[in-house]
Amino acid sequence: MSGVSRQRGFTLVEMMIAVTISLLIMVAVLTLYLNLRRTSDDMAQTNALIENGRFAVGLLQEDLAHAGFWNGHVPQFDNLSASKEPGDYPTALPPVCSAFSAWTQQDRVNAIGIVVQTYSGVPPGCSGIVTNLASNSDVLVVRHVDTCSPGVGNCDPVAVGKVYFQASFCDDDIPPSNPSPETTPYPVVLDTTGFTLHQRNCTSQAELRKLVVDLYYVRDYAVAAGDGIPTLMRSSFDLSGGVTPANALQPAVPLIEGIEAFRVELGVDSLSKTGEALNYSAPPDWADPVTRTTVKNRGDGSPDGPFVHCGAASCTRDDLANVVEARLYVLARTRTQTPGYSSDKTYALGGTTLGPFTDGYKRHLFTSSATLVNVSRRRQTP
Questions:
Q1: Who contacts 182 (Cβ-Cβ below 8 Å, separation ≥6)?
Q2: β-strand partners of 366
Q3: CA neighbours within 13 Å on the CB side: how many for 188?
Q4: Is the whole model's pTM more than 0.85, yes or no?
Q5: pLDDT at residue 6, as a whole number
Q6: Which of 324, 265, 376, 313 has the alpha carbon at shortest distance from 93?
Q7: CB within 8 Å of 222: residues ≥ 6 apart
Q8: Does residue 352 sit in helix, strand or coil?
Q9: How far apart are CA 380 and CA 371, in angstroms?
């Protein structure tokens, strides 16, 4: 029997050692996986934070770049070729949230002349639109007309009942009682009907452009009240009903989650190129009427003095009628907390500082400037 081999299995001790080693390897692999997963999730949150902040700033910049676009029409108070006292300088702040049916003719003139308004609280009459305003959020209102022609590209075709803007470029459209185009502004229409104005050839009908009014603010929740995710909101002027009257700002819709604070400061063109105060109760006063390179009582398109932050009641009429630039401050944060994260950073949003925060959320401040090119460029002279 000496030629027969014996077979042996693992002893209990050997089995226990193997199991222990296997468990240790599994724990190490699981720990590595969890660390990689946490790192990946943290990177994804940080990337989303940066993307959301940049998207918010870019969106606001684009809308502000269009502010004051009236499809070729230049308000008389900004028309340096005028030869009489302008008759369309705003007399008061235009309405923000009221239905268009309640606008007077002067309200319409004021809305064309004041294309940006900001508030540090809920604007008067807007409590049904601006709801759950975050504690560190301004309210921004931007006005212009569509940058595309109705029915062309992504622009909706003309719809009965919506508010459109039409400007005349034809001398024949000027009322006979004021026949001089040099001293009389070409007429405009901001309404739902009555579009009879013409192009420069005085034969073709002048183009209609839909009125655009956008209101931005930060709400203190995203989907359900109390969810704690601050969100950039936008309300737009439109015909559809909802809970507001037709042709008014409609209920705000969420745009970008994780926007925690929003502040706007305005650059006001309050001095002429010669350093004199603006005066709209007289025609443009040229230092040299022949060369017309320097006008003494109109702005030069550049902000003067410190930028202005509007309070709960907004800024003055004269400030807002002469805004040529805006500084944007957007504080974005991650949607969820990062365990163990703490920071002693503070964030300067113009004239206010936020932080430090110890709540576990990562944050990043985005700042940028937006020039109101449609206002500033028409004031510039060679």
A1: 81, 82, 83
A2: 330
A3: 26
A4: yes
A5: 62
A6: 313
A7: 229, 230, 231, 254, 257
A8: strand
A9: 13
Q: Rounded CA gap, 171 and 178, in Å?
A: 11
Pairing of strands 363-371, 259-268: unpaired
Task: Locate 141 and state its tokens.
Answer: 């209102």
| Cβ–Cβ < 8 Å for 238, 250 | yes
Q: What is the mean pLDDT of each run of 10 residues along the chain (382 residues)?
A: 60 81 84 74 83 96 98 94 90 96 96 98 95 97 96 91 95 73 74 95 96 98 95 94 73 96 98 96 93 94 96 93 98 90 93 94 96 96 84
Q: What are phi and psi of 137, to 5 degrees?
A: -120, 130
Please tell me the distance from the alpha carbon of residue 131 to that of residue 139, in angstroms, as a whole number: 11
- What pLDDT does residue 31 have? 79
**Ramachandran category for residue 133: left, alpha or beta (phi over 0 → left; psi -120 to 50 → alpha):** beta
> CA-to-CA distance for 316 and 308, rounded, in angstroms?
11
Q: What CA–CA distance (Å, rounded) separates 242 from 285? A: 49
Query: Which helix (H) or strand (E) is 78 found in, with range?
Result: none
* Assigned token pair, 66: 């269009």
For 23, phi then psi, to 5°, come to -65, -40
> And the tokens for 357?
């925060």
Q: Residues of 113-122 as b/e, b for ≥16 C-beta within 10 angstroms?
A: bbbbbbbbbb
Place of tokens 């235009």: 94
| Amino acid, single-letter form, for residue 303 | P
> Residue 53 is inside which H or E element, if any?
helix 12-66
The full DSSP string for 228-285 is ---EEEEEEEES--TTS-SSEEPPPEEEEETEEEEEEEEEE--B-TTSPBP-TTS---
Q: Locate 263 and state its tokens.
A: 């502040």
Distance between CA atoms of residues 251 and 262, nearest Å: 20
